Amino acid sequence: MRYFGSVAFFRHLIILALLLMAVLSGKYLIDVFIRKEPPEIKKERVSDLQYDKKSLSESDGTPQNRPPSFSYQSAYSELYGAAGQERELQDGVVYLTFDDGPSKYTPAFLDLLKKHGVQATFFLVGTNVQRYPSVVRRIKSEGHAIGVHTYSHKYLQIYMNVDSYLKDFSMAKDAIYRATGDRCAIFRFPGGSINVFNSRIYGELTAEMLRRGFKFYDWNVSAGDAVKKTIKKNIIDNVANNVRRDQPNIVLMHDTSELSLTSLEQIILRLKKENYIFKALGNEDRPITFTHIK
Ligand SMILES: [Zn+2]
């Protein structure tokens, strides 16, 4: 019996066709699911390489040892601070700092500080400065220090990249200048200089802000007054139990609630009883900043 045309021949032909289909569809699946880069991206990479080659040949062969420069460094040409000569913060001194204001509570904070003869520092949010410009002028006229705490205070927006931070900072600094005539050189990062929102850019961002002559302050004592469902006793204890005589104490509080306000009076009274003195931060003071721990 002849093999060609026989039942066995057709059976083998079908098996062969099925095998061929399996191989081809396997190759297709590999293309779709495993190969990560579509051909178009590969093409772009090739043109990048050609571009690099071109710029290298134009640099007449000398090695490129210049420090890196980034486009944001030449942007915002007015945005420079004038932080003065460094002066050590004093051990045992309490530097009260209030973030996120001014708010409707700030005048009462100012009354309280005046009543006890205490000087403090206010890190202001630009939108609130525009809302309460006369309060900002009062903060200044009563001898307190003023720093920038961004314009929008929107973490996702300001920490998107260095340029978006600078843009926001510039607006906040301008708002304070319009209210007081002062050009701030000190500031505080929302969430502190190292936080989960800026972890990708904080090195680059702090370097750029320092290069521009601005000085930022973190804190080493936190009142925890912005913590949900906290109580007055905890706020007072968080401060009074953590200030020390062998360090400058930068205390983080907020001038945005009744609870912070009533806690503040107790904090001042308790620390005064323990003979602590209070001061405002200045452009010259060496800042306290967080240390990155890996
Ligand atoms: Zn804040």
Describe the protein.
InterPro entries: Glyco_hydro/deAcase_b/a-brl (IPR011330), NODB_dom (IPR002509), Polysacc_deacetylase_ArnD (IPR050248). It comes from Cloacibacillus porcorum. The protein has 294 residues and is of the alpha/beta class. The protein folds into 2 domains: 7-53, no CATH class; 89-278, TIM Barrel. The chain is 46% helix and 10% strand. It has 11 helices and 8 strands. Strands 1, 2, 3, 6, 7 and 8 form a 6-stranded parallel β-sheet that branches. The protein has a two-stranded parallel sheet with strand order 4-5. Helix 10 runs parallel beside helix 11 (258-273). The relative contact order is 0.15. The structure holds zinc ion (ZN). Residues 99-100, 149, 153, 190 line the site of zinc ion.
What's this entry about, in short?
Helices cover 46% and strands 10% of the residues.
